[in-house]
């Protein structure tokens, strides 16, 4: 079988043996360790002057090939175009887009450099799988260097409708670059539809059956491959974690109160500010719940060198202080707000302890936390998932209490419904979600994508 060559922005956290808080890292490592191959990407290091070298290291059946970025490339490509331009743009947050020509110049330069460094490592029958918004032009750059391999691209984040995408001057460059791939994978049918709508309306292309299309002189295919988890592995871990020291400590600290849990990277797309507002509305409108619920929000800081991330952190600190100042009693703190990461084993225990999984992004490609929360529940006494209708996961998780995160009263009502739900209803909603998670697990995601790429 041909090798798999995965290219993604970051490789380093896994290589250094650190716990990564990104969903992509978990998914890619799982896929590669089953098939074997190469994982190429940025090492996470920067250098001020001179040139860089690709460092390779083989562990088991995976060769990690990483390269550092020049400081100016880090600023323009990573901090700039990827995280201050594309991330807000693709999450429908035009007002947060920070656009500069030097950013896109750096973005193109780094993609060309990645392609140039990867090229000598490629064998003719390698399947190449490029991940995410940092590397949209990479496939086209490899093609321009003469590589005829099957090259697929998967976008982990949402794809916006054409009216939003065209607010960015580079929209044609971005979509044209995507068309150079043999297969373009999205998280949901909604994202596929947004992309094909651009192909029809803006690119003047034609769209056929099964996501096949022609545009900019290229023939390609766009399909949805919703990313999953391994639910039974997590369930086993959660069951084991129920007896872990930290889970017991958490349980003791709750003294019988119902736990609402949120776990997100500290990112404005996750809707934490409105989520805090909704919790405040819950305490305001349902006074009987005061002293009987505890909301624990775990949110490790991410991308702290981007201005909009520093701002959301400040906003959340203010809101957390406000809620606790307004409602706390001498023996009850309504909101526990933690800016740190936890080991997977600890998180699974926390998920299992929580009566409610509170997941309300304003826009999210998929949201693996929603799926992980469901998988970690005790089948006899499962908790309830309160989920934003704008998370990709909402298309699959039909047993969740679905809410509109922009409507804080509606979210507060959703929390109330979830807190009051009968055990029969909780069990039946959980069972229906768990069977979806098993059918669309992480293995299925990887197999379906690679099968479609091979057979194109
Ligand atoms: P993310 O935006 O990072 O991923 P998500 O899908 O929820 O979001 O994945 C986060 C992962 O990190 C989960 O596995 C979670 O358990 C873990 N994690 C989060 N906070 C943590 C903490 N405090 N400590 C330890 N682990 C933590 C992007 C897209 C998503 C898409 C994924 C995968 O934005 O929409 O679902 O990629 O494609």
If you had to describe this structure to a student in words, what would you say it looks like?
This protein has two domains: 4-228 and 442-454, Rossmann fold, CATH 3.40.50.2000; 231-439, Glycogen Phosphorylase B (Rossmann fold, 3-Layer(aba) Sandwich). It is globular and about 65 Å long. The strands form two sheets. It has a ten-stranded mixed beta sheet with strand order 3-4-2-1-5-6-7-10-9-8, with helices on both faces. Strands 13-12-11-14-15-16 form a six-stranded parallel beta sheet, with helices on both faces. The protein has helices at residues 12-15, 23-35, 71-90, 101-118, 138-144, 162-165, 171-179, 189-201, 231-241, 245-254, 272-285, 307-327, 344-353, 368-375, 408-420, 423-439, 442-454; strands spanning 4-10, 37-47, 55-59, 62-70, 127-131, 151-154, 183-186, 206-207, 212-215, 218-224, 258-263, 293-298, 335-338, 356-359, 384-388, 401-403. It is an alpha/beta fold and 456 residues long. A hairpin with a 2-residue loop joins strand 9 (212-215) and strand 10 (218-224). Mean pLDDT is 94; it is low at 15-19. It contains 17 helices and 16 strands. The site of adenosine-5'-diphosphate-glucose has 24 residues, from helix 2 and helix 14. Adenosine-5'-diphosphate-glucose binds at residues 21-24, 26-27, 156-157, 227, 263-265, 298, 300, 341-342, 347, 364-369, 372.
């Amino acid at each position: 079988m041909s090798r798999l060559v995965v290219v993604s922005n970051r490789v380093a956290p896994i290589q250094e043996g650190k716990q990564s808080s990104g969903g992509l890292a978990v998914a890619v490592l799982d896929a590669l360790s089953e098939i074997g191959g190469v994982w190429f990407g940025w090492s996470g290091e920067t250098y001020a002057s001179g040139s860089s070298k690709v460092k390779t290291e083989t562990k088991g059946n995976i060769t990690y090939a990483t390269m550092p970025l020049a400081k100016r490339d880090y600023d323009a490509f990573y901090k700039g175009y990827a995280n201050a331009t594309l991330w807000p743009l693709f999450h429908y947050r035009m007002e947060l887009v920070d656009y500069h020509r030097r950013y896109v110049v750096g973005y193109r330069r780094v993609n060309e450099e990645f392609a140039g460094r990867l090229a000598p490592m490629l064998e003719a029958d390698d399947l190449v799988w490029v991940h995410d918004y940092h590397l949209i032009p990479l496939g086209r750059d490899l093609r321009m260097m003469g590589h005829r391999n099957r090259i697929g691209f998967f976008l982990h984040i949402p794809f916006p409708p054409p009216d939003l995408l065209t607010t960015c001057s580079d929209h044609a460059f971005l979509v044209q670059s995507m068309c150079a791939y043999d297969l373009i994978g999205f998280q949901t049918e909604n994202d596929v539809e947004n992309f094909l709508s651009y192909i029809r309306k803006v690119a003047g292309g034609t769209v056929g059956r099964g996501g096949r299309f022609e545009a900019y002189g290229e023939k390609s295919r766009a399909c949805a491959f919703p990313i999953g988890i391994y639910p039974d592995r997590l369930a086993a871990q959660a069951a084991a974690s129920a007896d872990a020291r930290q889970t017991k400590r958490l349980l003791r600290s709750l003294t019988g109160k119902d736990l609402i849990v949120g776990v997100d990277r500290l990112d404005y797309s996750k809707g934490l500010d409105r989520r805090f507002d909704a919790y405040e509305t819950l305490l305001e409108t349902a006074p009987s719940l005061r002293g009987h619920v505890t909301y624990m929000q775990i949110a490790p800081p991410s991308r702290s060198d981007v201005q909009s991330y520093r701002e959301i952190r400040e906003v959340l600190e203010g809101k957390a202080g406000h809620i606790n100042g307004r409602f706390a009693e001498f023996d009850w703190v309504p909101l526990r707000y933690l800016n740190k990461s936890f080991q997977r084993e600890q998180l699974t225990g926390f998920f299992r302890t929580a009566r409610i999984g509170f997941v309300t992004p304003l826009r999210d490609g998929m949201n693996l936390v929603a799926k992980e929360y469901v998988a970690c529940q005790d089948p006899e006494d499962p908790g309830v998932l309160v989920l934003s209708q704008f998370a990709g996961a909402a298309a699959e998780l039909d047993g969740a209490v679905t809410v509109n995160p922009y409507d804080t009263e509606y979210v507060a009502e959703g929390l109330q419904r979830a807190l009051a739900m009968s055990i029969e209803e909780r069990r039946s909603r959980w069972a229906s979600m768990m069977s979806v998670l098993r059918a669309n697990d992480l293995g299925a995601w990887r197999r379906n994508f690679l099968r479609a790429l091979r057979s194109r």
